[in-house]
Design goal:
This protein is an alpha+beta fold and about 110 residues long. It is built from 3 helices and 6 strands. The chain has helices at about 50, 60-65, 75-100; strands at about 15, 30, 35, 45, 55, 60. A 4-stranded antiparallel sheet has the order 1-4-3-2, with no helix packed on it.
Length: about 110
Protein backbone atom coordinates (compact mmCIF):
# COMPACT_ATOMS: atom_id res chain seq x y z
CA UNK A 1 0.00 0.00 0.00
CA UNK A 2 2.70 2.49 1.00
CA UNK A 3 4.70 1.76 -2.12
CA UNK A 4 1.63 2.93 -4.06
CA UNK A 5 1.37 -0.38 -5.91
CA UNK A 6 -1.90 -1.64 -4.40
CA UNK A 7 -4.96 -1.93 -6.65
CA UNK A 8 -6.90 -0.19 -3.85
CA UNK A 9 -5.32 3.05 -5.02
CA UNK A 10 -7.11 2.87 -8.37
CA UNK A 11 -10.29 4.49 -7.07
CA UNK A 12 -8.63 7.80 -6.48
CA UNK A 13 -10.24 10.01 -3.90
CA UNK A 14 -9.96 12.83 -2.92
CA UNK A 15 -10.27 15.14 -5.90
CA UNK A 16 -8.28 18.32 -6.46
CA UNK A 17 -10.78 21.16 -6.83
CA UNK A 18 -10.86 24.86 -7.60
CA UNK A 19 -9.26 27.15 -10.13
CA UNK A 20 -5.96 28.90 -9.56
CA UNK A 21 -2.29 28.27 -10.38
CA UNK A 22 -1.89 25.07 -8.27
CA UNK A 23 0.63 26.77 -6.01
CA UNK A 24 1.01 25.65 -2.43
CA UNK A 25 0.61 28.67 -0.18
CA UNK A 26 -0.61 26.88 2.93
CA UNK A 27 -1.61 23.45 4.17
CA UNK A 28 -4.83 23.95 6.08
CA UNK A 29 -7.62 21.53 6.99
CA UNK A 30 -11.27 22.52 7.47
CA UNK A 31 -13.39 20.10 9.51
CA UNK A 32 -16.80 21.19 8.24
CA UNK A 33 -16.17 20.16 4.65
CA UNK A 34 -13.17 17.81 5.05
CA UNK A 35 -11.01 19.88 2.74
CA UNK A 36 -7.24 20.29 2.65
CA UNK A 37 -6.54 23.75 1.29
CA UNK A 38 -3.35 24.47 -0.61
CA UNK A 39 -4.20 28.09 -1.41
CA UNK A 40 -7.20 30.41 -1.10
CA UNK A 41 -9.01 28.82 -4.05
CA UNK A 42 -7.83 25.21 -4.36
CA UNK A 43 -8.17 22.15 -2.17
CA UNK A 44 -8.32 18.38 -1.95
CA UNK A 45 -11.82 17.31 -0.98
CA UNK A 46 -13.10 14.33 1.03
CA UNK A 47 -10.08 13.99 3.33
CA UNK A 48 -11.29 12.45 6.60
CA UNK A 49 -10.10 14.22 9.74
CA UNK A 50 -8.48 11.04 11.11
CA UNK A 51 -6.39 10.80 7.92
CA UNK A 52 -5.34 14.47 8.13
CA UNK A 53 -4.34 14.00 11.78
CA UNK A 54 -2.59 10.63 11.30
CA UNK A 55 1.04 10.71 12.41
CA UNK A 56 3.91 8.81 10.81
CA UNK A 57 7.31 9.19 12.43
CA UNK A 58 6.17 12.12 14.56
CA UNK A 59 4.68 14.11 11.67
CA UNK A 60 1.20 14.61 10.30
CA UNK A 61 2.28 13.30 6.92
CA UNK A 62 -0.61 14.78 4.90
CA UNK A 63 0.27 18.20 6.27
CA UNK A 64 4.05 17.79 6.09
CA UNK A 65 4.02 16.67 2.45
CA UNK A 66 2.27 19.90 1.46
CA UNK A 67 4.33 22.12 3.79
CA UNK A 68 7.49 20.73 2.19
CA UNK A 69 6.16 22.04 -1.14
CA UNK A 70 5.21 25.51 0.02
CA UNK A 71 5.97 28.04 -2.71
CA UNK A 72 5.93 25.37 -5.42
CA UNK A 73 3.34 24.62 -8.07
CA UNK A 74 1.78 21.18 -7.87
CA UNK A 75 2.05 19.17 -11.07
CA UNK A 76 -0.50 16.59 -12.14
CA UNK A 77 1.81 13.87 -10.80
CA UNK A 78 2.13 15.71 -7.46
CA UNK A 79 -1.67 15.83 -7.16
CA UNK A 80 -1.94 12.11 -7.92
CA UNK A 81 0.78 11.34 -5.39
CA UNK A 82 -0.99 13.30 -2.64
CA UNK A 83 -4.26 11.56 -3.40
CA UNK A 84 -2.49 8.20 -3.02
CA UNK A 85 -1.02 9.30 0.32
CA UNK A 86 -4.54 10.02 1.59
CA UNK A 87 -5.87 6.65 0.39
CA UNK A 88 -2.90 4.71 1.78
CA UNK A 89 -3.28 6.36 5.17
CA UNK A 90 -7.03 5.76 5.25
CA UNK A 91 -6.45 2.08 4.51
CA UNK A 92 -3.68 1.91 7.13
CA UNK A 93 -6.03 3.37 9.76
CA UNK A 94 -8.72 0.86 8.76
CA UNK A 95 -6.30 -2.08 8.96
CA UNK A 96 -4.92 -0.96 12.31
CA UNK A 97 -8.45 -0.90 13.75
CA UNK A 98 -9.18 -4.33 12.26
CA UNK A 99 -6.00 -5.79 13.77
CA UNK A 100 -6.74 -4.22 17.15
CA UNK A 101 -10.21 -5.78 17.03
CA UNK A 102 -8.76 -9.25 16.45
CA UNK A 103 -6.48 -9.17 19.47
CA UNK A 104 -8.41 -10.18 22.58
CA UNK A 105 -8.06 -7.77 25.45
CA UNK A 106 -6.40 -5.10 23.34
CA UNK A 107 -4.70 -2.93 24.37
CA UNK A 108 -2.53 -5.28 26.38
CA UNK A 109 -2.10 -4.31 30.00
Amino acid sequence: MHLFESPKLAGLQPQFCGKDDNSVEKAQYTDADQRVWVNANQYFDAVPKNVWEFHVGGYQSCQKWLKDRKGRTLSYDDMQHYRKIVIAQAETIRLMAEIDGLIPGWPLS
